[in-house]
Amino acid sequence: MPRDKKQLTVGTVINPELQGIEWESRVEELEDDLLLMPMPLPELEIDVPAADAEVCIYWNRPPSRYRVNAKVLGSAGGRWRLRILGDPELVTRRTFYRGGGGEAAFLRHEEETEWQAATVEDISEAALRCYVAELNFVEGEPVCARITLGDAAIDISGTVLLTREPDKDSDDHAEVIVVYTLPESQAQQVRRYLLEWQLAQRRRATADE
What is the pTM of this model? Predict the structure, then answer.
């Protein structure tokens, strides 16, 4: 791998992706193109990959995000051993995983202090889609949002991307989509919450079968 600022190093926080699940991990050892990382936690319910299976690894070097593919060589001592394939690539267009729904949220105009209650339709690292009883926001307007994610809340500043009035003949609420750029600490908080939400959905689906 090239010796530059986008290179992985020991201790780098990474987001491996396998079997449709992206989780948070770290680089424990790295020598040339050989990488050791902890095995995913059992609660992630990720099957042990076959030898030669490929894992996509993402990591951040603010303000950029990179990825590289790696081949699974084996596992031992609670760690996976992988061989990095090729050089890191800049992720110029990232697809953010969206999930959640039903969480409590609040919106307010940037220069005001009064909050308006909202209900999350879904959330990602880049956008919030929510319902409000009354549409008091316009597209392009800067807003603040407070969203309950599990036992914690996250405060963000963003911009209204789209609004939608409810249909006249329905009981639907108005819809507001807010886009934003999160600092890495908050992005990790959202990723962790969505991973827990995804696992809960999978367990619920399995229980219903």
Answer: 0.60
